Structures are given as C-alpha cells and as structure tokens.
Amino acid sequence: MQMLDRKLKRDLRLSWKMLLAITSIIAVGIGSFIGMLSSAHNLRVARSQYYSTCRFADFWIDLKKAPVEEVHRLMQVEGVSEIRDRLQFKVIVDLPEVDEPISAMVLSLPEDPEPVLNAVVVRKGSTFTHDRSNEVIVSEKFAEARGLEPGDRIGVVMNERREELIVVGTAISAEFVYLTSPGSLVDDPKNFGLFYMKRNFAEDTFGFTGACNNVTGLFTPAVRQGQRQQAVLDTLSDRLSPYGVFVTIPRADQFSHMTLSAEMNQLRSMAYIFPIFFLVVASMVLNVLMTRLAEQQRTVMGTLKALGYGNDHLRWHFMKFGLVTGALGGIMGCALGYWFASVMTTLYLEFFSFPQLVNGFYPGLMLAGLLLSVGACALGTIRGVERVIRLQPATAMRPAPPTRGGRIWLERWPRLWSRLDIQWQMVLRGLWRQKGRTVVAIFSAAMGAAIVVLAFGFVDSMDAMIKVQFDRVLRSDYHLTFTRELDDAVLYEIRRLPGVTQAEPVFMVPCTFQAGHRQKKGGIMGIPPQSRLTTPVDAQGQAVSIPAQGILMAQRLMNQLGVQAGDRIRLLPVRGHQDPVTATLTQGFNSMLGLDVYADYQWINRLMGEQSSVSEVRVLARHNARQYRDFMRALKQMPNLETVTDIRSQKKALTDQFDGAMRVSAVIMILFAAVIFLGAILNGTLIAISERQREIATFSAMGYHDRETGRLFLRENLLTNLAGTLIGLPLGAWMLVGSMAGFETDAYSFPAILRPVSYLYTLLLAVVFVWCAQWVVHRDMRQINRVEALSLKE
C-alpha cells in the first residue's frame, strides 16, 4: 500500500490544476451551505434569546376603546395564559430644527420596572423615574438618526395638542426587530420612531382613563403548540366585538416576526437548494477527471493486478484521490462559509435590531458540510474508475482499443458539412466522440447560466416592483392620515397649501371579509373613480377601473378567500353602524404591497352611512425650496393630523435598502456562477490538452501558432458553454418564479420579472468566462514539451 500511496501523491501533484478547479466549485457550494445555514442559526438563536428576554406576545388585538376590566376578564378564556392591555396611538413629532412633521407611534408602558409582555431593552439612559410624568423612552434607531440623547426635550402633537416630553433613555424591543412605519416595507428611522410613555400620562393625554385600545397576550403551552390558536383568537374577538375590533394578529402574522421568519426560511431553503448545483457539477467534473485518469493508467492497473493487488485495493486507491479532493474542498468551504456567515450577520444588524447578534461556530454544521463534500466526490470518483478496475489483468495490461471513428451525424448533410472549415469539423467530431465529457460541459454551463439568470432576475424583479408600485399605483407625493374621519372640507384646506397641485380623498373602512367558511380581516379603501394619484393595476400593468358599485380585491386576498370575480362577499365593518353588508367582487388586481381592497369613494361612504367622509388625503405637490418649507410648517399646525408619509422618501429608502441588497447579492451569485463556468471549462480543457499533447505538438511542427491551435479549444468551449447557457436561461427563469413565490407574504409580494437584456447579459457573461479560461489554456499549451510529445509511443 505504501507504493500506491506514493503513486497517489504523484497523481495529485500532476493533477493539481484540475483539482484546484474542482475544489473551488466544491468550496463555493459548501461555503454557501455553511454560510446560509449559519446565518439562519445566528438569527434563530438571537431571536429566541430576545423573545425570551422581552416576553414576546403570541397575539395582538387592535380595538377602538375597551374597558380595562373587560379586557382582564379575557383571562377566563380557555387557552389564554396572560393578557396585557395598553394604549397605542400615532402621533406627530415636532422637532424645532426640522421643517417636516415626523411620524411616530406612542406605546404605553408600566411605570414600575416589572416583567410585562413585549417589554423593552434599554440601551442608553434609564427606565422611567418617579420625578416626572412626561418621561419617554425613544426607539434606539430614531434617537440615533435624530441625535437625541437622555435629557433632551422634544415636542409631540398628541390628541390635537402639543406636549413636551423628556427623553430618559433609548430602547429596543422584540416586538419591533424590524421596525417600519405602517404600510411601509423599509426601515426609515429618521422619519418614524417609537415612543414608550408612562401609562398614566398616556391615559390622561388621550382621554383613555381606565380603557385601552390594544391587547396583547400569551397562549397556554398546549394551544401554542397545537392547532387551536385561531379558535382562541376568534373567541377573544367575539368577546371584544362590542368595543370595535379592528384587527386580530397572531404571532405568525405580526409584521416584524413575519419578516424575520421569512428571511430565515429563505436562508434555509436556499441553503438546501443552492449548493446542489455546485456539488452535482463538481461530482460530474470529477467523474470526467477520474475516468480519464483511470483510462490513462489502464496498463498500470493491469500490472498492479497481475502483481497481486485486488480490486478493493485499487478501488480504495482511487477513492483516496476523491476523498482528498472532497476533504480539501470541504475544508475550504467551511472556512468560506464561516466568513460568509460573518459578513451576512454584520449586514443583518443594519436591518434588524437585536441586543446581540453574533456569528456562531457550529461544529455539527461544519461536519455535515464536510460529509456532503466528501460524499459528492466519492460518488464522482467511484463511477469514473469502476469500469477499468473490473477489467481482468490480461485485458487491462493491453492498451485500450482506439475509439471508434466513422462519420458523425452532421456528416450526413454534405452540403452543410462542406461549408465548415477543417477546425470546425475537428471540433464537432471531438465533441460528438466524447459525448460524456460534452454532456458534463453543457450541464455545468446550464447550472452556471441558471444562477446568473436568477441573479439578474432578483434585480429586475425588485426594479419592476418599485417602478409599478411608485410610478403606476402610487403617484402621490404625500399621504396625510387623520386621527378621525373629517368632512371633505379638509380637501380644500390642503389644496390651498403651498405647492400643492392635486389632492384626493381616501375613506378607509376596516372590516372582516367573509366568503363561506373563510374570513380575513382587512380594510376597504374608498377612492375617487377617476383617481389619478392611486391607480390599481392588473398583472400586465394596465390600470383597473374602480366600479360604481362593488369592490376590487387584490388577487392574493382572493386566493386566500377562495373567491373569483362575480362572487358576493360579506363585509363586517368595525366602525360606524357595524351592520353586515354584502358587496359584489367585480374584479381582481395585482397588489405588491399589502392586501388592498378598493371601492368607489362615494359608494363606500353611502354603504357605511356616511357622506363624503375623509380618512386620508393623498397629495401631489411641486415645490421649490421655500414652498416645501412653508408646506411642511403648515402641516405641523394642522389639527387632527396623525401621520405624514413621504412616498418619494419611501421609494428612495426601498431602493437604497432592498434594491441595493439585491444588487450586492446578484454580484455574489454571478461570482459563484463564474466559479462553475471557469472550473468546468478549465478542468475539461486541461484534460483535453493532456490527452492531445501529440496533436498540439504536430500542429506546432506544421507551422501553426499556439493561438491558432488554441482556437480549437476556444471553439469547443464556446460551443458547449453557449449550448449550456441556452438551456440555463429557461431553467433560471423557472427558478426565479419559485424564489419569488417563496418571498410572498400578506405584507408584500414580488413579481418574477426578467428583462430581455438580462438574457443577453447572461450570454455575454458566458462568453467572457470562456475567454478568461482561454488565457489559462494558452499558458498551459506553451508549457508543453513539443519534442517529448512527438516522441510518445502508442
């Protein structure tokens, strides 16, 4: 066995370039496996600790106004282990040095530091003191964005009057790991924050003494782990229905938790799917290498068998070659994966707020990655050498018979064949007669191209979502919401503000949609039938008209309710008279943000027994610097104003955060695809060069330059890689559709969009990768000893 081990070392040394190509493919595959799963584990561990520290709730119920005594009686409901009542209001922050009114959410918090549901983790300063009633704890990111420190005083417009609050600390909460303003997808800490306020002060300020408008709670362990959560929530909702239940949210649908869980699930899905591409390609490429090595050493194997080495000895000898390759690739992949997880974990700290998020080392995961690497290489090795190993010694000691020649199928068309020059004929014959190697090259290129298409698809889909949502659907500049419904006189007041060119009313009706046994809480948005600032669109991006009667519904919500156009939907409003009404679903439309439902503004007003009531005004404005300043200052003075949403700012934030992250991910995925392309091309070409040294030397002796000879390999690689890329284009598009479906939640969905130019870019990248590999090919060809190659014996 010592002799075989020496032979193994020699074979490894002579094949180091091809092994480097294979180990690089393996390293990227295992690196992505380790990196994504480690990142998911990091988030899971941090989330578990955070939720435990803050006693994260299992459900939330938003109410109009309910007595605290009645809320406490909910503890009698079977399946509920704890209930907490609190106040929750949207307010306007008035900072003297800032022209714009800033939106914020006020949440009540007990004055005494006791363990409560959805508690906060103080990061700077302290909790409440007993010195002042108007103390406030501010969300950490908002304080950092606005330069607020403990001891600062800030003005807040609450319940139509301005109050001065004293900042005593900054904090984070597990309830808002991912904090966005209502209706937004992006974290914009400069324009939205959380203010935790003493319960007694909040009650006095908002006129809610002995009452609450938000309930959170915990299920019993049996309900939490079982299937009765919705039944318990329905019971709670029924008990509180006299007090106006706006929405009931289980933990799975809570936006912050849903966003974090979706990211973790996406990481796990990609971790199990993405590495398969690399490991399959690596196994097939290694199979080609081992097949060539075994065939090249056929007579050596026959001699060894004649000397007494059995099949198992030789099989284990070649298996060591694959195991070494797998081990090296696995070790490189583990190191790459740990680094990759570290980078991703650091990136997540920009999106999510955790007390602590660190990159952990997971030995079990590393071992699994190493075993996957070794297993893939073992499979590729054994399939490549088994045929030669099973030969009898006498048969193996004879050189392999020449490969069968003859015409290939293209030669059956003489007119076509005769039009090809001699080099193209040589290329086509070689590819056809090495079918296995050609299939591996095409398959590898298809996998690489699919990844490139997927990368471009992520960017195209995000760009399309932003373009449709902010250029076609939401054409306004600002959304102004109010603490209560106003009459349409507010429209004339807003239209007179500096720079305002158009203002349209919106009437929001929170309700429950019922279709058979299915129901979903949501809301109807009443807009003018000829609205220019809010335009629902269909899947083709065409505007959908608002019906004079009936409702338009987001297609995703239609799917959840199991309804289609023409069906009758039962509506249970939670405001106004609250009598059930029935409406016709006239048409579906494509909604990317939320599960919107639209209706005619006047029709929904009449249906609710109102007349020209306004919940929100959408504004289009064209400001110069002075008009903008005057406009924002006027909004600060407007009574009943609850929030101001800057749509253009949201578009910019979404572009900077999500679109930027998608582009970085796309670059990384393209680099990964480059490893597949280059690794497969180099391995196959270097094998071909080693087999055709005499042919190359002969061309050199005939006067051909290395560049002219290299064109043979260039043409082979271009042909196989472009063929594989053409196969990979639809494969990548199919993968994009599946990936976008995995991102879909109630809060958002992304279209699966691929621009035609992305297919062209993929083809161009395939050509670039071939040209990059060609540089290595030329270098390797120049190192061939022509005299020695010509003196080889058959």
Task: Report what the structure shows.
It is built from 24 helices and 20 strands. It has 794 residues and is α+β, with helices and mostly antiparallel strands. The strands form 3 sheets. The chain has a 6-stranded mixed β-barrel with strand order 3-4-9-6-8-7. Strands 13-14-18-15-17-16 form a 6-stranded mixed beta barrel. Helix 1 packs across helix 10, helix 2 packs antiparallel against helix 20 and helix 15 runs antiparallel to helix 20.
Outline:
Helices cover 54% and strands 20% of the residues.
Highlighted features:
794 residues; 24 helices; six-stranded mixed barrel; alpha+beta
Quaternary state of the chains: single chain
Report the strand count: 20
Strand content: 15-25%
Largest β sheet strand count, sense and barrel closure: 6 strands, mixed, barrel
| Tally of helical runs | 24
Low-pLDDT residue intervals, each spanning 5 or more residues? none
Mean pLDDT: 86
Helix content: 40-55%
Structural class: alpha+beta
Distance from first to last alpha carbon: 29 Å
Can you tell me the overall shape?
A: elongated
Q: Strands across the major sheet, in which order?
A: 3-4-9-6-8-7
What layout of secondary structure does this protein have?
Elements lengths: L1 H13 L1 H39 L4 E9 H5 L7 E7 L1 E7 L7 E8 L10 E6 L9 E5 H7 L6 E6 L2 E13 L18 E7 H8 L4 E9 L1 H5 L3 H12 L4 E6 L4 H42 L1 H9 L4 H41 L11 H27 L3 H5 L16 H5 L3 H12 L1 H39 L4 E10 L1 H7 L4 E16 L2 E10 L23 E4 H7 L6 E6 L7 E9 L7 E4 H7 L5 E9 L3 H12 L4 E6 H45 L1 H9 L4 H38 L12 H27 L3 H5 L4
Helix pairs in contact: 1-10, 2-8, 2-10, 2-11, 2-20, 8-11, 8-15, 8-20, 10-11, 14-22, 15-20, 15-22, 15-23, 20-23, 22-23
